[in-house]
Amino acid sequence: MNCGRYVKNSVEAFCGILVLCNLVLSVPPAMASEKKLPLSAVESDPKAMGWMVGFPPESSRLITQPDSNYFSFPKLRWSVCHLREFLPTQEISRGLDAPVPLKYLRPKTLEKVGREIDALTFKPLGLDTSMTWADSLQVNYTDGILILHRNRVVYERYFGCLQQDGKHAAMSMTKSVTGLLAEILIAEGTLNDRTQVSEIIPEVANSAFGSATVRQVMDMTTGVSYSEDYSDPNADIWTYSRAASPLPKPANYTGPNGYWQYLQQVKPEGPHGVSFHYKTINSDMLGWIIARTANKSVTQLASERLWQRMGAEQDAYITIDGLGVPFAGGGLTAGLRDMGRLGQLMLNKGIINGVRLFPEVVVEKISAGGDRSKFGHAFPTLEGASYTSQWWVFHNKHGAFAARGVHGQTIYVDPTAQMVLVRFASHPQAKNGLIDPTSLPAYQAVAEYLLSR
After folding, report:
1. Residues 211 and 272: beta-carbon distance below 8 Å
2. Using CA atoms, how far apart are residues 20 and 376, in angstroms rounded to an integer?
3. Are residues 352 and 430 located together in one domain of the fold?
4. Does residue 119 sit in the same domain as residue 188?
5. What is the CA angle 281-282-285, rounded to 5?
6. What is the domain-level CATH number for residue 125?
């Protein structure tokens, strides 16, 4: 076995996870060849492509590890539902109690509302022509969509690799779970967001993170050096990926081992607290902070504080590095309905099924948003937005806020319309700025429709 080649491919494969969980500006060279002429949602449907069909599948239909292209399009449309078949994971247990079923509209009403939502029209950002809601689902390569209104499911659809009992990669929506757990600890007095990181994690005292506050980490206003220029072989993303990969490293490897060792050597890049910079290493730093504070892993905290108590239908899972540390910035895979429950928790300010899971102030702090003057203009489709506690806040007329992940993942909470919308997708392009024009106006159209009912 050529160990060097195996390790190179394995690291590139693991980079795919990091690519999918960040707002990338370009694609790694290993992915470029398959993204020249993207197939439509119908053409690239995993069932149409025949991925992993047969016993055994044809060699041309195999998607395996350590191949470095299992996150390339169109393969990613299958892989997003099968992450634990490529990488080691930790379980986020839903516990042993029976799930609490979501409430639905009566069947005939559900069918009627579904048809009406499908027929809704809106104008995509920057265009004068209209598009229907149903068409937007295909344009955005939707794998699953769930809409709740006033605590009841009013719309639910599955496509691509996803079925009702399936799970899907949440990408950077993972960050919002991590941020929510941090806000819960803060509200309960266990964690102080004004504390310097080095006081909680002495291991990073000599890192750029050491002098940042917990709040600056939560809001991604740290002045840390971290490049995600995939065209640069010396960019930090490649060092981070090699460190975080749970797969074998070459015998001559001398770099950091795991997320936390990498965080200990991050260099400064400007002062903390000045401006927002979307860098996933902040999320993994926050994961370490809350794990050390609570003396529990992120997976255990998510299980105990959320999944076991919100009536979840399915266990979730999260990818880990070679030392068993969960990828707090993007490794979550979960069921569509359970992400709907999480959104409902946020809409109801900590209450679900008549039970309060965390203080109301947690959601009040998140939904109020961060400092908009620090947000800048890096995200044109989110003009006027802000970022706080690893959540995106739109500051629109409905007070909407969201968890977001590349390739089209979202939990969109609209308090005015009393709506929670959850979408899993596998769009060929990672960057949500390319998907927002046919997504954000569509969400608003549904919200306005629900308000009129």
Report:
1. yes
2. 23
3. yes
4. no
5. 85
6. 3.40.710.10
Q: Domain check: are 42 and 161 in the same one?
A: no
| Structural domain containing residue 273 | 181-287
- Residue 98 in any domain: the answer is no
CA torsion, ordered 259, 217, 204, 184, to nearest 10 deg: -80
Domain annotation covers residue 95 = no
The one-letter amino acid code at 12 reads E
User: Reduced to 3 states, what is the DSSP secondary structure of residue 435?
Assistant: coil
The secondary structure element, H or E, covering residue 174 is helix 173-187
150: phi then psi, degrees, rounded to nearest 5: 50, 45
Q: Indicate if 357 and 216 belong to the same structural domain.
A: no
Establish if 93 belongs to a structural domain: no
436 and 306 fall within a common domain: yes
Q: Where would I find the H helices in 251-280?
A: 259-263
Same domain, yes or no, for 142 and 205?
A: no
Cβ contact 145:418 at 8 Å: no
Q: 197 and 256 in contact (C-beta within 8 Å)?
A: no
Instruction: List the chain pLDDT tens, one digit each, 453 residues.
Output: 333 333 344 444 455 555 444 433 233 333 333 335 689 999 999 999 999 999 999 999 999 886 668 889 999 999 999 999 999 999 999 999 999 999 999 999 999 999 999 999 999 999 999 999 999 999 999 999 999 999 999 999 999 999 999 999 999 999 999 999 999 999 999 999 999 999 999 999 999 999 999 999 999 999 999 987 767 888 898 899 999 999 888 999 999 999 999 999 999 999 999 999 999 999 999 999 999 999 999 999 999 999 999 999 999 999 999 999 999 999 999 999 999 999 999 999 999 999 999 999 999 999 999 999 999 888 999 999 999 999 999 999 999 999 999 999 999 999 999 999 999 999 999 999 999 999 999 999 999 999 998
Residue 124's contacts (CB-CB under 8 Å, 6 or more residues apart) are 131, 437, 438, 441
Q: 327, 17 in Cβ contact below 8 A?
A: yes
